[in-house]
Amino acid sequence: MDEEASMCWCGKIATILTSWTDSNPGRRFFMCAAKAVIYGLLKSRNKLEKSVAKARQREKVVWVLLVASGVLFASIILGGMCGCGVNKKRSSELASAIELIEYAHEVNGHVNLCASETMQRNA
């Protein structure tokens, strides 16, 4: 099958290629060798660009979570060290609750206190 060589507009000889696109696979056409695109590589490049975009988005989310957890951690640590009245009150309430639980455990052998009994012992 002798086909006449086609010339490209740039002056180079166009080669016969086969299409491998999803819309028209197997179609033969003339293409300038200077502007050839390998569609398999183009598809893989597009996939890589999408995965890079997803990775950048995930990286942003991780940074936001990291900063938020650092702020939360610092507020917990510094909030406990500042000696605020609220924290002292909570600490004393927790200490008294722990003492009540230990006392109940010694007396009953297990923790069996309801909320009303705890309130009566605090008063």
Describe what this molecule looks like in 3D.
- Helices cover 61% and strands 8% of the residues.
- With 123 residues, the protein is mainly α.
- It has a domain of 41 residues.
- It has a two-stranded antiparallel sheet with strand order 1-2.
- About 6% of the residues have low confidence.
Taking the sheet with the most strands, its summary is: 2 strands, antiparallel
Helical percentage: 55-70%
Which word captures the global form?
rod-shaped
Supply the helix-strand structural class. Answer: mainly alpha
Order of helices and strands: EEHHH
**Secondary structure tally, helices:** 3
- Tell me the Rg in angstroms: 37 Å
Give the structure's gist in a few sentences.
The protein has 123 residues and is mostly helical. Helix content is 61%, strand content 8%.
What secondary-structure arrangement, pairings included, does this model have?
Elements: E1 14-18, E2 28-32, H1 39-81, H2 85-108, H3 115-122
Antiparallel strand pairs: 1-2
Keywords for this structure?
mainly alpha, 3 helices, two-stranded antiparallel sheet, 123 residues, single chain, 8% strand, rod-shaped
